[in-house]
Write a structure and sequence with these properties.
By secondary structure, the protein is α+β, with helices and mostly antiparallel strands. The protein contains 15 helices and 20 strands. 47% of the residues are buried. Bound molecules: adenosine-5'-diphosphate (ADP).
Length: 447
Amino acid sequence: MFRKILIANRGEIALRVIRACREMGIESVAVHSTADADAMHVRMADEAICIGPPPGTDSYLSMSAILSACEITGAEAIHPGYGFLSENAAFVQAVEDHGIKFIGPSAEHIRMMGDKITAKETALRLGIPCVPGSAGGVADVDAARAIGEEFGYPVIVKATAGGGGRGMKLAKSADEIEVAFKSARTEAKAAFGNEEVYIEKYLGTPRHIEVQVFGDGKGRAVHLGERDCSLQRRHQKVFEEAPGPSITPELRDHIGMICANAVAEMKYEGAGTIEFLYENGEFFFIEMNTRLQVEHPVTEAIMGVDLVREQIRVAAGEELSFHQEDLQVQGHAIEVRINAEKLPNFSPCPGTISQYHAPGGLGVRMDSALYDGYRIPPYYDSLIAKLIVHGRDRPEALARLNRALGELIVDGIDTTVPLFHNLLQAEAVQTGDYTIHWLEKWLDENL
Ligand code: ADP
């Protein structure tokens, strides 16, 4: 096992990894920008090292600064968390070239899934059902028109290098395809430096269902059920739950085994998420994320496993500590993402926390790096806390979430907490009957 791990991240996810290290008897090294000198991850780690000025590009995204921090502290492995360098194949390559272990999949697997056309081709080859659409990139407007005719409108033009919902354009009819095609290419070029686009059938009322997978890198893999992350604003997840309210044990088994087998065949190492749109009983692959997800705690709650511990174990060459048959859904879990944002516009709201009190009690988990007097810097993501609840069933989880939100105190700044108080009253949230479009519509009507 590793003696010392460096965590190339900040905020709640850095704390999450430090906690796993401590329970495993592994020393942790925090890295931080000058803006984060007082951050909780710096206080909580065994060692801390400053890697640069506030902007992410000069600190948490600086490969050379992070590699130097590893050399100086003698860390043997790097945990990337999510975001920043977690899905950067060049970084993984550089880490391995320095004789340091990257806790996550290989550079090759990250590259394969980072390009959406290659990812879709790989998925199809491995027997994963995909959204019908163009075979590969679409070169010009005539080709785009032909695809529109073949699959029928509406279609969506998407950037192969896409991420964060950018470079995606809807064409509802043949009249709109030329504009959609050209603007998607322009946006893709500006955002990702790669103008290649592909075209898919646009699904009208899908849910976002994602399957958590885990591989040992040697050809053994399991799935850990699904999460429903349909409640999104601008393609950003806001509220996640597991298991999915619309997914039966048979469906879970069916799609889960397809995913586990695919990941086993790839000899994939570590945690991954295979994302689907789910409509009328059918799953359609959209992408695979080759890292730990923000919403991983809901899976941990219902499966009773520590995914970060497992990532570290597998990276150190140990066997998976569970078999597929050990992984049975226990109850229901929900996560809400608490952001430092001002409603109704969700404008970022950094500032000083004058008072903080975390909720507690049975089935409540608060993953956060907040503390009394903490100054939230303006340079990074606005996620400040994840409140996760677990109950014996969905109604109990909802009641527990309501109770825990009532106990939470975050004073001094605006947060998205009031949104969740309101959202919990909505009938669709109570029944679990919503699609990926439901939240945006509800926000328009209620905020
Ligand atoms: P990104 O990597 O930019 O997040 P994704 O391919 O994961 O892009 O898609 C993000 C979101 O866009 C999905 O969760 C869904 O809401 C919407 N979307 C993507 N493809 C389709 C499609 N074919 N039909 C309908 N909605 C889609």
